[in-house]
Amino acid sequence: MKVRKAVIPAAGFGTRFLPVTKAMAKEMLPIVDKPTVQFIVEEALASGIEEVLVITGKGKRSIEDHFDSNFELEECLRKKGKNELLQLVEETTKINLHFVRQSHPLGLGDAVLQARAFVGDEPFVVMLGDDLMTDTTPLTKQLMDNYQKTHASTIAVMKVPRNEVSSYGVIKPDGKVDDRLYNVASFVEKPKPEDAPSDLAIIGRYLLTPEIFKVLQHQKPGAGDEVQLTDAIDELNKTQRVFAYEFRGKRYDVGDKFGFLKTSIEYGLGHKEVQGNLKNYIVKLGKELEAGKVK
C-alpha cells in the first residue's frame, strides 16, 4: 500500500523557548523568514505525501492561520506589484492540510493517537518539528521508498555522541539487513549513557503501520510521566518487525536555543537576501572576539 499521509505533532508547550512561547507557537519561530513547521510540511510534499494532519493544542492557532489564505494581504501585494512576495504568501495556501487538537498534552504517543481517524488503516509518517533534515533525497521519501521493500514500520535513526543519548530514544540493534537498515531487538527511551545499547538515536521521522494505534490505546505513561511513542514502538516490535533506517544527511536540531541559533545562521548563509551581509558580519565578529572586544 502506498504511503499517502503524514502526521505532524505540534501540541507541546515549547517550554525550552519560554518566554516567547507563552503567547506564540514554537513551530512558528522563524528560521530567517520561514517558520519551522513550513520546512516540515515542505519535506512531506517533496516526498510525495498527499495529505498532512497537524496535531495542535492551546495557543497554536497561528499555525492554522499561517497556512490559510489572507485575502487582504494578497490583494495589497497584488496592487503594489510585489509579485515575488505574493508568490511566497500564496505558496502556503496550496497545501492539503488538516488540523485536530490534542486537548491535554499527555505525550508524543498520545498526540499520535489523535490521528487515528485521519490515518485509518493506512501506513503513515510521523514528522517531528524539532528536526529539520536535508539530503539529496528527503528523509521522509527515503523511509517511504524503504517501506515499498519491507512493508514494515521503519524508524529513522542517526549516530549521536554517546554523552547525548539520554536526550533521545535509542535502538538496540539486532544485526543489519543492508548498509543502512537494522533489525531492532528493542527501543529504549532516554537511557543513561552507561546503559544505552547503542549510539543510534531516533531523530524524529517515523514510518508506522496502523497497528501502532492499538498499542497506543493501552500504552501506560513512561519517561516524564507521558505516553511515549518509543515505548509503543518497542511493544509493536514484539508482534511485527520494526526496522531502523540510518540517516546520513544533515540534521538540524531546532528543539533548543543553541540548535535553533546554529540553524538560523547556516540557513542564513544560504539565503540570497542576507547571505552576503551575514558572512561579512560573522567574519567581523570573529575578529572582534579574537581581539577581546566582544565578551
Class derived from helix and strand content: alpha/beta
The shape, in one word, is: globular
Tally the helices. Answer: 11
Q: What is the end-to-end distance?
A: 57 Å
What is the CATH T-level topology of the largest domain?
A: Spore Coat Polysaccharide Biosynthesis Protein SpsA, Chain A
Beta strands, count:
13
CATH class of the largest domain: Alpha Beta
The largest beta-sheet arranges its strands as 5-4-1-6-11-8-12-10-9
Short description:
This protein is of the alpha/beta class and 295 residues long. The protein has helices at 36-46, 61-66, 71-79, 83-91, 108-113, 116-119, 139-150, 212-217, 229-236, 257-268, 275-290, and strands spanning 5-9, 30-31, 34-35, 51-56, 97-101, 124-127, 131-134, 153-159, 169-176, 181-189, 200-208, 242-246, 250-253.
Characterization of this structure:
The chain is an alpha/beta fold. It has two domains: 5-255, Spore Coat Polysaccharide Biosynthesis Protein SpsA, Chain A (Alpha-Beta Complex); 256-295, no CATH class. Helices cover 34% and strands 24% of the residues. It contains eleven helices and 13 strands. The protein has helices at residues 36-46, 61-66, 71-79, 83-91, 108-113, 116-119, 139-150, 212-217, 229-236, 257-268, 275-290; strands at 5-9, 30-31, 34-35, 51-56, 97-101, 124-127, 131-134, 153-159, 169-176, 181-189, 200-208, 242-246, 250-253. The protein has a nine-stranded mixed beta sheet. Strands 2-3 form a two-stranded antiparallel ribbon. Helix 3 (71-79) packs antiparallel against helix 4 (83-91). The longest helix has 16 residues, at 275-290. The mean pLDDT is 89.
